[in-house]
Specification:
The protein has 5 helices and 7 strands; from the N terminus they run βααβββαβαβαβ. It is an alpha+beta fold.
Length: 182
C-alpha cells in the first residue's frame, strides 16, 4: 500500500473565478485634492459621525468654509467626499524656527475605512508639509493613533507643539499629541 500526502493546489493565474465566487467591482478611483469653500457642507457632513463619537470636536459649518484651504479631500468620481484632513501652518512668533504644521479634522467615511484611503490622505499631507518646508507635523488623537505611528509620528509632550494650538486642546478629552519631523 502506498500513501501519498496530497499537495495543496494553487489556482492558475489564468483560471477564471469559480462560478460560486462573486466578482467584486473595482473600487472607484478617488482623487485627493485641496478643498474649496463650496466643500464646507460636505466636510461638515463627513465629520459629523466623528463628532458624535467624540473623536472630533464640533465645528460650526461656517468654520469649514473659512478654513477650506487647510483641507485635503478624497473625492469619488461622483463628487462625494470620502475623506478629509486639514493642515494648519503655524509660524514661530520669534522667527527663530521654521514653521510647523498641525494635522486636524482627519476622517474617512466608514465605508472607506480599511481601504488605504487614510494613508493616501496622510501621504498627501506629508508631501504638502515637505513642499511648504515645514519643520514638523503635529496632531492630537483620542484614538490609538496607529495610522500616525505607522507613518513615523511619535508621542511628544504638548509643550513641543505650536503654543496656540497646544493651548486649544481640551484636557478632558485625553488626547495624545504626536509629531513627525519632516
Amino acid at each position: 500500500m502506498i500513501t501519498v500526502t496530497p499537495r495543496p493546489t494553487t489556482p492558475s493565474p489564468r483560471a477564471p473565478h469559480p462560478p460560486h465566487t462573486p466578482r467584486l467591482a473595482p473600487a472607484p478611483t478617488l482623487t485627493v485634492r485641496g478643498a474649496w469653500p463650496r466643500d464646507a457642507a460636505a466636510l461638515a457632513a463627513l465629520s459629523q459621525p466623528f463628532v458624535r463619537s467624540g473623536a472630533l470636536r464640533a465645528r460650526p459649518s461656517h468654520v469649514y468654509e473659512w478654513n477650506a484651504t487647510d483641507f485635503l479631500v478624497a473625492e469619488a468620481p461622483d463628487g462625494t467626499l470620502e475623506g478629509c484632513l486639514a493642515v494648519r501652518v503655524h509660524t514661530d512668533p520669534r522667527g527663530r524656527n521654521r514653521p510647523t504644521g498641525v494635522v486636524y479634522n482627519f476622517c474617512v467615511a466608514r465605508r472607506r475605512q480599511g481601504s488605504g484611503l487614510g494613508g493616501r490622505l496622510l501621504d498627501a499631507a506629508l508631501a504638502q508639509g515637505r513642499s511648504r518646508e515645514l519643520d514638523a507635523l503635529f496632531t492630537a488623537t483620542t484614538g490609538s493613533g496607529r495610522l500616525f505611528l505607522r507613518y513615523g509620528f511619535a508621542p511628544v509632550a504638548p509643550e513641543l507643539a505650536p503654543a496656540s494650538w497646544a493651548r486649544s486642546l481640551d484636557p478632558r478629552r485625553g488626547a495624545k499629541v504626536l509629531a513627525r519631523v519632516l
